[in-house]
């Protein structure tokens, strides 16, 4: 579904990504793990057109997208939940969800998807008229994921969804990510510092260090890899 070929992304003169290549197949959960500052978020921003690569190719279903605008990329079916959630704090929960569907014109379908979001996260349904900025961190993450799903993405990009959340909420968020993949058939590219949780739900994984991919394997193999255990799992 998605392929990055020798991506080089820069911030001014500073090279953030160094010949990054990876593949994500239809229906997979693929995770990218690494330390803070390794280049994981830049990888997502390169895919989304926010920080286009200076060199290399990004292909979505075989078609190059690295010269397209961010809005065009969303129209293709790629949607990102950014680090820090970035909901609209002054808007209600319901209005935030409606913003996720701003490119759609099927009013009945939007209503059904909003009802499904409230079924998936009942707390959002109970707080549908509450301002997004008054929600807890975990509730805001639920809202951010639900808002992204309102665009009906075929590829969902998640940037550090566990960041700053309590362990019980983290467990719930990862269960929902798995559910979205299995029940909706949504392909997921998951960027995470919580390598243990990410590798438990992923099919495959990549390890990034200093802007470069240093290791790739099945998720279960990475969980048992001694180097990964020492560096990222605290074992």
Task: Give a quick rundown of the structure.
With 235 residues, the chain is an alpha/beta fold. 40% of the residues lie in helices and 26% in strands. The chain contains 10 helices and 10 strands.
The stretches of 5 or more residues where confidence is low (pLDDT under 50) are: none
- The CATH top-level class label: Alpha Beta
Total DSSP E strands: 10
Assembly state: single chain
What is the number of helical segments per DSSP (H or I, 4+ residues)?
A: 10
Largest sheet, spatial ordering of strands: 6-7-8-3-9-10
Number of domains: 1
- Provide the gyration radius in Å: 17 Å
Beta-strand percentage?
25-35%
The CATH architecture: 3-Layer(aba) Sandwich
CATH superfamily membership:
P-loop containing nucleotide triphosphate hydrolases
CATH topology: Rossmann fold
From the helix content, strand content and strand pairing, which structural class follows? Answer: alpha/beta
The largest pleated sheet is described as: 6 strands, mixed
